[in-house]
Amino acid sequence: MNSKQQMDITELQKLDSQHHLHPFTDAKELNEQGTRIIVKADGVYIWDAQDNKLLDGMAGLWCVNAGYGRKDIAEAAYEQLQRLPYYNSFFQCTTPPAIELATLLAELAPAHINHVFFTGSGSESNDTVVRMVRRFWDLKGEPQKSVIISRKNAYHGSTMAGASLGGMRFMHEQGGLPLPGIVHIDQPYWFGEGGELDKQEFGLNVARQLEEKILQLGLDRVAAFIAEPIQGAGGVIIPPESYWPEIQRICDKYGILLIVDEVICGFGRTGKWFGSHYYNITPDFMSVAKGLTSGYLPMGGVMVSDRVADELISKGGELAHGYTYSGHPVAAAAALANVKILRDEGIVETVDTDTGPYLQQRWQELGEHSLVGESRGVGFLGALELVSDKLARARYPNSGKVGGLCRDISIKNGLVMRAVGDTMIISPPLVANREHIDELVDKAKLTLDQTLEHIPSIKFDE
Ligand code: PXG
């Protein structure tokens, strides 16, 4: 890098700190450090402004499923931008890409899901779900059924409704949340909260909290339950096998709506098109975003089951809800190109039958490391629990210190891994091949070794 380039970077970092407020960021701390500026990407790699090449173990933010640099997605968007950059889907109008995308999504979703409402993001999708759930019960003549049950440590977005549905205490504390009518039960996090219980028994116990909550609130008040098939931002929390069948049984028994948040698990992340396929769940709604466009353009949606769509449509009356960018034609064109890539190149299938099992087999090896209390994963999702005592599942003090160190070392080693407290997580692009997986796991292993070496220098009490 020459001095001119270095100056440009320093200048950009200065402007960033002067004018740009970042999401989920301590601005004071960031301004002292300076941002990492990412300038280009290709396949599974990103490059920063200093020309460091990083294997993107997080697919951006769990979204670049098709990998970076797909000209066919860019061209589809460019072509649509020239033909018709914008029109809305209000007032009896729509555009061809929005229609075609809705049709393709209905084909890929479980058979009983045949409608989609388009949004601009996962958060907007979950806001939309709240509106639709309440509209559904209104139309049924039971408007008092309005409470939505969610889970602690869930992530469903950052808008007021999204953050309320989510179970992140630190988010609730900042915003006077949750909104009324949203309550939380425990999460199926065996490693962190299962104690001495057998995994499957623990899974059943936490699922049965749903039944207890319904009975406690009164069935006449409960509208729906929302959950991610596998919690992403919460730390890649994979429920015991006993969990989802029990949740399904309870939703069916009481007739409450089941909302499955597929924002991370959708579009092949588990090796199936949707997490609902992976766990054999029958949702009434699926929220989608991220992998829908592989992040190339912002877009989300709520996929609606026949049970709900029939009610919304047959009774007539307007759904008083919608966004300027619902069904945006350029985003829809990019989504179409992206979903066709995932389908026609067999990318989802490859994750299911080849690269997913290979990643899991290699990821399991990291569970042998003395710093790792558990390694777990499904498809192209993985987590490592960093512990001070393997057998006792004992954590280091001051959660996040060891995880943060590990993440920083990982980046120095050329691998983007994310830390949630002391849980290291990955969610790589679905196009990573066996060589990329070897590189990822080898770099993660080196990172664990170096983290272990550096732990004695951590000041846990600061
Ligand atoms: N649902 C789930 C399951 C998500 O993971 C959203 C909804 C909201 O989507 P939008 O598009 O509004 O961001 C998400 C988003 C993290 C992290 O730190 C995860 C997300 C967003 C930001 C940070 O892992 N997931």
From TrEMBL:
Cofactor(s) listed: pyridoxal 5'-phosphate
Pfam families: Aminotran_3
Entry keyword set: Aminotransferase, Pyridoxal phosphate, Transferase
Transferase is among the record's keywords: yes
GO molecular-function terms, A-Z: adenosylmethionine-8-amino-7-oxononanoate transaminase activity; pyridoxal phosphate binding
GO biological process, one term: biotin biosynthetic process
PROSITE patterns: AA_TRANSFER_CLASS_3 (PS00600)
Homology family: Belongs to the class-III pyridoxal-phosphate-dependent aminotransferase family.
Protein name per Swiss-Prot or TrEMBL: Aspartate aminotransferase family protein
Organism encoding this protein: OM182 bacterium MED-G28
